[in-house]
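I would like you to sit down with the record closing this message with an eye to the fold:
=====
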Amino acid sequence: MVDTATEPDARVYFAAERTQLAWIRSGVALMGLGFVVARFGLVLRELSSADTTGPHHTASLWVGVVLVFFGVALHLNAAVQHAMTIRRLRRGETLQFKTVSLATILTGLLALLGIVVGAYLAVQI
């Protein structure tokens, strides 16, 4: 018989599951956005193919690749964090959250990427 006093409420497990699914959704969105950004460079290249002296649009390819890698990093982080959370819950340990996590670092990197892309677009005008 399982001691219900030490067994966490099922809602805690469901909350952990919802959190992991939210991270997966965010990762898929980043990967999809990265793909669209990378392919947008090809569209711009085709539109300007008649003008051989025009700018080459390789920046969109690299920004797209970076966004896809950020999405992959989110997926890996979600898997590791979810496994660690479930393990802690099963052992009856309290959940500990880090001050600086991969999500915080990724948020900063995405903000920096947004600033760089905004500056790049401003120069192109």
Notes: Residues 10-124 form one domain. The mean pLDDT is 81. The two ends are 70 Å apart (CA to CA). Helices lie at 10-47, 59-91, 102-124.
